[in-house]
Amino acid sequence: MNKGILFTELIIYLVAMLWIGLHFARKGLSESEYILGGKKLPGWALAFSERATAESAWLMLGATGFCFAHGLSSIWMLMGSVAGIIVSWYWLARKFREEADKYNALTLPDYLASKYGHFANIIRWFGGIIIIFFFTLYVAAQFSGAGKTLNVTFGMSPQLAIVITAIIVIAYACAGGFMSVVWTDVIQSILMIVTLVVVPIIALIKIGISDLSMGAALTNLGGGMDSWAGTATGFGIGIMIFVNFSWFFGWLGGQPHLSARFMALKDDKDAKTATRVAMIWMVLCYAGVFMIGLTAATLYGGKNVVASPEMILPYMLLDLMPTWIAGILLAGAIAAMMSTADSQLLVAGSSLSEDIIHKAMGKKLDAKKMVLASRICVLVVGLVALIFAFTSKSLIYTIVSWAWSGIGCTFSAAIIMAFFWKKTSGAGVVAGLVGGFLTTVVWMNTPLDKIFTTRAMTFIVALAAVIVFSLIFPKKEEAK
Fold first, then answer.
1. Which among 42, 26, 313, 319 is positioned nearest to 185, based on CA atoms?
2. Sign of the Cα pseudo-torsion (74, 77, 81, 83, in order)
3. Whole-number pLDDT of residue 274
4. Within 10 A of 214 (CB to CB), how many other CB atoms are there?
5. Which of 147-151, 222-226, 337-341 is most confident?
6. How many angstroms separate the CA atoms of 164 and 158, rounded?
7. What is the Cα Rg of the chain in Å?
8. What is the pLDDT of residues 4-41, one digit of tens each?
């Protein structure tokens, strides 16, 4: 393995990302363009960006590692996300665009606050705090994932790798805002799809040449690897499927970094184009993730081949590919982490500057100062996430699951009811946000999570809170 070639390719890739950020920074962006692109981006680009942003290190490292460790039963975790993606693009994307235009909203809390004006400041404060808190952890997970990947690839210390990744991501997210984030996401999304399609094909070819049997290999590994139900039996099968499928609830409009792509769509024509692109990407990449897990189990046997199952994709790339190709495709794994980290940094920073400083605290700044404030907030959130990346020992899958519950499942309940139930009130939205946040924090840190998954419980509690408090405290004429 020629590490010099790999390192050169990585440097070229990182420099290209920085160039894109600086290119848009020179354009003198308005606040609307910095936060949401000013409705100037094509639908296909927003679709690529949404897919890359959504999947991150969770898909490239966490999900491939999960499939490698659990075999056939991992399909239910993937299917939960697939169902959620379909719902979000076919039923929610257009509604987000319409509502964002109607209320002139730039962020998710801004939309809810504008629609339920009597509770505007409470929604902005609490919604902003939820986003900043969980997205800081989420970004830290991406930085940590990059550190692991660069450590495996180059033998670089994880700490140095984390710092390098953080500097690049923070720099171009700060500089070019939403514009640079989307266009870097397009490149990263293409790298991700190539990686997730090519690797399982090469692995299947090697399995055929080696005269291996995937079914026999999974059976020999034991631990329910060859069963769609894993090690579960009886009623436990239903619980296992539900726990894995529960990722679905976080896709129902509650992820601010994804809803921003929907809100940025120009019109229905762009929405249709974006939906088709997103569906094709989803099918190819999710099939690739599943097959990477199964083929890796067939080729390499047990989990001990790598220090962590989450490192199986980088291991396969270096084992199966010529060095120069492995370098390009490894950039796809790193791209996944960067494409989510940059978007979440931007959303968290924008929530701090727009929702809290500008709207909730009433700080009146001109356009240039607002963009500067947003950049400073992005920098601050990025630095805090970097500190968490150094101190956290949790797996990527675990951190993302926690953030998925705290943000996605919490906001999803409020968004679904705001879109489709006319009796939803501001009090109900606030209760849903509070209830979802507290459920995640309490449930995830007790044995209850192993009995009934936090993702589902957070959504159920948040949804119930929205309904109950909307009925007890009916809405007034709240929209501004």
1. 42
2. positive
3. 95
4. 16
5. 222-226
6. 10
7. 22
8. 666 666 677 777 777 776 776 666 667 777 777 778 88
Please check whether residue 175 is in contact with residue 372, taking contact to mean a CB–CB distance below 8 angstroms. no
CB neighbour list of residue 128: distance below 8 Å, 6 or more residues apart: 109, 351, 352, 355, 356, 360
How are the residues of the chain apportioned to helix, strand and coil, as percentages rounded to the nearest 5?
85, 0, 15
Given phi > 0 = left and psi -120 to 50 = alpha, else beta, which region is 214?
Answer: alpha
Tokens of 321: 């590919």
Please give the average per-residue pLDDT across 103-123, as a whole number: 89
Q: 3-472: which CATH architecture?
A: Up-down Bundle (1.20)
Sequence-ordered list of residues with C-beta below 8 angstroms from that of 220, at least 6 positions apart, any chain: none
Reported as a single tens digit per residue, the pLDDT across 353-388 is 878 887 778 777 666 777 777 778 888 888 888 888
* Distance (Å, whole) CA 17 – CA 168: 8
* Pair of tokens at residue 81: 């996300």
Helices marked H in 256-405: 256-263, 268-300, 312-320, 323-350, 367-391, 396-403
Q: What is the pTM of this model?
A: 0.82
Letter for the amino acid at 234?
A: G
- The DSSP annotation for 75-131 comes to HHHHHHHHHHHHHIIIIIHHHHHHHHHHHT-SSHHHHHHHHSGGGHHHHHHHHHHHH
d(CA 64, CA 70): 10
Amino acid at residue number 420: F
User: Where are the alpha helices (H) located in 26-42, listed in sequence order?
Assistant: 31-36
Q: Give the residue among 347, 365, 6 at the shortest CA–CA distance from 150.
A: 6
* Least confident window among 22-26, 39-43, 117-121, 124-128: 22-26
**CA-based nearest residue to 138, from 332, 353, 345:** 345
Sequence-separated (6 or more) residues with CB below 8 Å from residue 439: 405, 454, 457, 458, 461, 462
71 HSE (CA, 13 A, CB side): 23
Q: Which residue has the tokens 């710092």?
A: 163
Q: What's the rounded Cα separation, in Å, for the pair 367 and 179?
A: 17
